[in-house]
Design goal:
Elements: E1 2-5, E2 8-11, E3 29-32, E4 37-40, E5 43-44, H1 45-48, H2 53-62, H3 68-80, H4 86-93, H5 101-114, H6 124-149, H7 163-172, H8 178-190, H9 198-208, H10 213-224, H11 232-241, H12 246-258, H13 276-292, H14 296-314, H15 324-334, H16 342-363
Antiparallel strand pairs: 1-2, 3-4, 4-5
Helix pairs in contact: 2-16, 3-6, 5-6, 5-10, 6-7, 6-16, 7-8, 8-13, 8-16, 9-10, 9-16, 10-16, 11-15, 12-14, 13-15
């Protein structure tokens, strides 16, 4: 807690990890961790997940759900900026292909900034122009990196496909079926925004220095990469590979608990009950399993969840429920995504939220500069 006395800040309590510290006010999203509620711009996530990603991006950037004319215009602008030029493709080719796609994405965003005429213009209009390019090109960059890494040429975007469906097409060269396209679109919506998480906070800190939007987004990318944040999805996918069947899942969890090891995809700093996104992800994972006629992976995940709930929630009264990373990791495996793509796919969805927060920061800025107590 910080108490202001005659203009002097007195540090009276240190909250490790800034837990529960209110750092700023925002209109972009709202979380009720006790009730398991998540809202973007005051719209519940259970409603928003039925929209298109373009609609939700527009909502985050502009404050309201677009009407048909506004959506058509916004979607058209995004589609017209999906293509990346040969210079950027060459930059991606210079990346070390043993790295995560996140590292290549970060490098590509730096390259984009060098070529942007609006680079150092942080006016609202300039930032909206940059926002369109960033949101539109993130999927193309990640898909291009994946294809180059696996020995294929990058594909041009398909302008007739939605944001999520086009990404899956650019990865594989095949148009996804209706369910796969729907699931990818919903995944991007579910990851688009989540209040003042670590990557969003780092983006706002950078924006508060009046640095450019690309730099702020790179700050978000660097922070998201960590295994305690966006990198958890890759960890979940790797964890699922270690369990051969649902019969082995219970013992796997018990071993982790007995060795006091973290179970990836469970627990959240804010939610004390089910993460509302997790329920949606679980339903989508089940539908994908049924659609593919193979529920092995889903059954493993469900047994892991059941064991965690039984051992930690029911027996130890700890609020360790599945978070958004757990069943999203299941979904990514059903969609055939490589684990090294997982965090960058998270970023494809989250970039709209980062940008919305940066725009809000720029609009009423004060340098974010907390204090530390000397010990």
């Amino acid at each position: 807690m910080i108490i202001i006395t005659k203009g002097v800040a007195q540090l009276t309590e240190i909250k490790k990890g800034l837990q529960d510290v209110i750092a700023l006010e925002t209109r972009i999203s709202c979380i009720d961790g006790e009730k398991g509620i998540l809202k973007y711009r005051n719209f519940d996530i259970n409603e928003l997940v039925n929209l298109s990603y373009d609609s939700v991006s527009y909502l985050l950037l502009n404050g309201d759900i677009p009407n048909n004319t506004e959506l058509d215009d916004f979607s058209s602008k995004l589609k017209n900026e999906r293509e990346i030029n040969e210079n950027l493709i060459q930059t991606i080719k210079t990346c070390n292909f043993n790295i995560e796609a996140m590292d290549a994405l970060r490098t590509a965003v730096s390259h984009m900034s060098h070529c942007d005429l609006d680079l150092n213009d942080i006016s609202h209009d300039a930032n909206i122009r940059k926002a369109i390019k960033l949101i539109a090109r993130f999927p193309t960059i990640v898909a291009s990196f994946s294809r180059i890494k696996t020995g294929y040429n990058p594909l041009s975007p398909d302008y007739n496909l939605s944001h999520g469906a086009n990404f899956l097409y650019m990865l594989s060269g095949e148009k996804p079926d209706e369910l796969e396209a729907k699931v990818m679109e919903k995944d991007l919506i579910l990851t688009a925004e989540h209040e003042l998480n670590a990557s969003t906070f780092s983006s706002r800190v950078t924006a508060s220095t009046l640095s450019d939007l690309h730099s702020a987004i790179i700050s978000g990318l660097d922070t998201l990469k960590g295994p305690l944040h966006g990198g958890a999805r890759m960890a979940v996918m790797n964890m699922l590979d270690e369990v051969s069947s649902s019969n082995d899942a219970e013992q796997y969890v018990m071993d982790l608990i007995q060795n006091n090891q973290k179970i990836m995809g469970f627990g959240h700093r804010v939610y004390k009950t089910y993460d509302p996104r997790s329920n949606i992800y679980k339903d989508l994972a089940k539908k994908l399993a049924e659609n593919k006629g193979d529920s092995t992976l889903y059954n493993i995940a469900e047994r892991i969840e059941d064991t965690v709930i039984q051992e930690l929630v029911e027996k130890q009264n700890k609020p360790i429920y599945p978070n958004a990373d757990f069943y999203s990791g299941v979904i990514y495996k059903y969609l055939g995504l490589h684990p090294k793509l997982a965090t960058s796919v998270f970023a494809i969805g989250r970039v709209s939220g980062w940008i919305a927060h940066c725009l809000e920061q720029y609009s009423d800025n004060r340098l974010i500069r907390p204090r530390a107590r000397s010990i």
